[in-house]
Every structure is written in structure tokens, then in C-alpha cells.
Amino acid sequence: MIIIDELQKFDLIVIGSGSGLDVANAATQNGLKVAVIEKDRMGGTCLNRGCIPSKLLIHSADVAEIIKSANLFGIEVDRLSVNFQKIVERVNGITDHSSDQIKNAFKDIENPKLFAKECKFVGEKTILIGDNEKIAAEKILIASGTRPEIPKKIEGLEGSSYITSDEALRLKKQPRVITFIGGGYITCELAHFFGSLGTEINIVQLGDVLIPNEDEEISKKFRGIF
Predict the structure, then answer these.
(1) pTM for the structure as a whole
(2) Helix (H, G, I), strand (E, B) or coil at 110
(3) What is the mean pLDDT of residues 149-163?
(4) What average pLDDT does range 49-70 have in this prediction?
(5) Which of 11, 152, 154, 198 is most buried, by the most CB atoms less than 10 A from its CB?
(6) Which pLDDT does position 35 carry in this prediction?
């Protein structure tokens, strides 16, 4: 038997701890009673699976490229050795520490109040947290971010042990070969990272340019580089 706690009422409920935290903090500062729901790591996509970890990895790739071209500056480097696991652990250590700091900041405060569990709607403007906590609010902001889209029409993809960009950011072993489906900016970033460290790169793109949504001249330049 599951016993549900008494309904807790808030002025605002924010689902997601990325950009939604900005709204939650602003609402709190204006006197509203706020709840934040986050089942995963605090900080949202940008901190955990997007901008920050990808740019940290790219910096390591840039350093490798500089070392490779050191002779242009009159510096001779006998051998480039890559400790892939150390690179990834450094990046994840930085992002995980920042995420933990955000979560720790909620420990001693009641507003905004953090609910670190999965949730679901069970009624009009009413949410069940986990198995036994129920909360409600007049305003509910869904700021849960996005997830990688998996193509459904590629024969053989299902069951092929594919990974998405989320898993690529936390690989423990450097792939010998990696094939990217799609030629957007995420592919280009990760291809630069893995390729600079020695992984063989393949890109499957529908169209004749990379990052097709960018300026035409930039797209063509990228196509020439890869």
C-alpha cells in the first residue's frame, strides 16, 4: 500500500534545473513560493550534456592540434601521447562538481524547494513526486530541456549498440573508428575532438555540406576541412 503525503501547494512549480532555475530564483526573489523538480543532475543540458563539457573536450583537442604543429614555431615534439580516460575524467570532474554545488545550495533552503525525483501529472496542475509526495501550483513551467533524436527509418540501427552525444561525452575508452549520422554542429564538435586525438572519423550526412543551417560560406568551409 502506498500512502500519499498531504498535498503541498506552491505558487510556481519548475520542472527542470537548467534555465528553469533562473525563473525559479527570480520568482522566489519576488516573494513567490517555488518548487523545483529535477530527477537527474542539476544544471540542465548545458552543464551536463552540452555547451560546457563539449567545449572543455574541444580545448583538449585544440591543445593536441597545437602540439602537432609545434614545428611551425621552431619546437620539435618527438611523440604525442593521448590519455583519453584522463581527458574525459577531467571534464566530467569539472561538470559533476559544478552540478553537485548547485544541488548542495538547496540543502539549507526551503524556497525554492528542491524535489530530486521523477514526477508525473496526476491531475489538473497537480504533480506526483516519486511515490508519495503530491504538489500543486497555479503556474507550472516545464523546462526539462531536450534529448537526442534517434532516427527511426535507418534499417539495422536498432540493436546496433549505437550511442548518442550524451554517451559520447562520457566514453571511458577512445574509439578506433567512429561514424556520425548527421552533419550538424554537434557532429562537427565531437568529430574535431575525437579526430584530433587519433580516432578515424566518418560522417554520414544527407546533403553536400556540413552544418547546413549556418551561413553558406561557413558550411562550404567546413565541408572542405572534413
Answers:
(1) 0.86
(2) coil
(3) 88
(4) 95
(5) 11
(6) 98
Q: Are strands 8-15 and 133-142 parallel, antiparallel or unpaired?
A: parallel
Sequence-separated (6 or more) residues with CB below 8 Å from residue 8: 35, 133, 134, 135, 136
Which residue, among 89, 96, 106, has the nearest Cα to 25 in the 3D structure?
106
Q: For the chain, first and last CA: distance in Å? A: 59
User: What does the pLDDT read at residue 126?
Assistant: 97
The domains located in the chain, with CATH, are 1-146 (3.50.50.60), 165-225 (3.50.50.60)
- Antiparallel, parallel or unpaired: β 177-181 and 200-204: parallel
Distance of CA 78 to the CA centre of its chain: 36
pLDDT (0 to 100) of residue 209: 86
**DSSP letters spanning 61-87:** HHHHHHHHTGGGGT---S-----HHHH
Residue 58 to residue 91: CA distance in whole angstroms: 10
**Is residue 169 within 8 Å of 194, Cβ to Cβ?**
no
Torsion angle in degrees (nearest 10) through CA of 181, 187, 192, 197: -50
